[in-house]
Structure formats: C-alpha cells, structure tokens
Amino acid sequence: MDPDILSQLISICEERTFPPGHVLRYEGGFAGDMLLVLEGEVEIRFEQGDASTMLTSARNTILGEIGFLTGSGASARVETLTDVRALGIGRKELELLATRRPDMAAAFSRYLAKLMRARLQQNTVLMDDFETADPPPLEVFQCNTEDLMIRAQRLRYEVYCGEFGRPSPYADHDARTLIDPLDEHGTSFIAVYEGEDAGTARVNLAKHGGLSILPDLYGMGTSEHHPHKTCVITKYAIPEKWRGGATYMRIFAGIATFVQASGIREIYIDCVPDLARFYATMKFRQSAEEFVHYENGLSVPMVLDVAEYHARIPIDERLRRNRWR
Predict the structure, then answer these.
(1) Sign of the torsion formed by the C-alpha atoms of 158, 162, 166 and 169
(2) Residue 179 pLDDT greater than 90, yes or no
(3) 97-115, pLDDT tens digit by residue?
(4) Separation CA 48–CA 25 (nearest Å)
C-alpha cells in the first residue's frame, strides 16, 4: 500500500487492538467495516466439510474487503495469532477520506479493486481443492450496495403496506418503498432464495445515534451498556410465503455476527404480543412497558444479552448447525 494512503487512513480511522485467539471474522458472518492490520499476525482458514486450508497474513493486510464491498458473508474464518493492532475502515471513514483528500480516496479505491480481484482469484484456487458443493438455496446479504438497499426497502413496503395494510408516514406509494430516518445510520440485511427476495431486517448501533424515541420506549437508558454497546433491530419484514421457515433465523444469524464484530452486548427489538413467547425462546426478555407503534400497533419491547446468548452455544457452532435459538 502507498505510504501516503496509509498515513491518511491512520489519521482518520479508529485504531483497535485484539489479543491472540480473537476471532475477527466468522466464515459466513458479517461486519460493518474492513480491517487494516498495522501490527501482528492473523490466520485465515477456509473450510469445507472436514477439509480446511490455512493462510497467515501480517502487517498492511486488509481483511473483510469483499464482504464489505459486496454485502456477502465472509469467505473464511480469521483469527489473531498474536496481539494485533488494526484500523477499522467503514463508510464514514471512506467518506471523510474523499472529503479531505479526494486524490488519496481515488487511489485507495483503485488499490481495493486490485486487491479484491486478486483475493477472488486466490479464493477460487483455494476452493478448487475442496469437493464441489451446491450453494445454499437461501442466502443472506448485507445491503452494502444501492441495489440491495432498494430491494430491502421495497420488500418492507410489500409486507407492511401491502400484506398487513398498515399506514406509514414514510411510505412512498409511487416507488413502492418504505424508507425512514433510521436508514441513515442503519445496516440492512436481505435474504434471497433462488433469486427471490425472502425477507429483510435492519440493525442500528446506538453509538451511531439517530434512534429518536426508541431508547426511551425500549428502556435502554437503564442499561450499563448503553449507548456504546447496544443496538436495535427494526423493519423485520418477511413475506407470507416465507414465514415459519428458516428465513427469520438466517437473517438473525447475519445480524448476530454483525453485532458480535461490532462489540455489541445487547440487542433490543419490539414485537406484537403474540410473538413475545417466540422471542422468549431465544432468551429475549421484556425490557420496558408495552407501547403503541405507528406501524405495528401494541408492541412489547424486548432485549437479548449477546454475551449470554453466545455463551450457550458458540457462534462457530451456531453457524455450522444453523441454530439461532
């Protein structure tokens, strides 16, 4: 990497430290940024069934660029072998770089393109050593592209305004989309089954702000983890034909890996009373008094302790067994 680009990134991005044995990325998982390793060594493990291939990388390695740029889940498990210092490079940092130094932003964009192409070719070679497996029919993507985001917003409209017939001040009936202020700081996910959009949901980290009255409604202010380690999940929209199957849990799986990578300790949601028992099976508990939501009607706010949730079944095991309850 060009030293001038590196210098600009160091001046803009937050530095993070990780101890040996820390999982930076889970295969199939998501994160809100890329990581640029400044010091230390990591192991990158590709697995298929009982077979695995390992690589090691060190200083000036960028991790997670393919998932960050395309919205796909991580292609490998990445774990620190030593103490690691790294920079978190997200959309906010890229926008700031473009504002301060557009020449460096353009150079970094070209660098990422070359890196991404090389990594995709490398991954193809590594996966050739494994037996060919059919891709999963239900895939989850992080909405990191405009196309995926619009599809998620249209799916919300289809479910909330179409199937449920609920009015919303944020509905665009001409475009048939549902876009609200939480989209500005939120991260949406979409499930796709053989090319058909099967469900979507959005997560907002409280530390990014813009939650309006939700912290009060959810009782988040009483938590020792708020606002730096709390988040809310909203706009869970699954069309009728996909309800009752794996779609809901697969989307939650994506969000669970995303919040874990973001250092979140509590997930807050609200649901209609009939679904409170379902969330309780996932170890959510009611976090505040019921309230009336402009789209959902009577709603029950609930919270999940992320550390306790992952302690019951490690996240690697949940990904392998697709078990999220």
Answers:
(1) positive
(2) yes
(3) 999 999 999 999 999 998 8
(4) 16
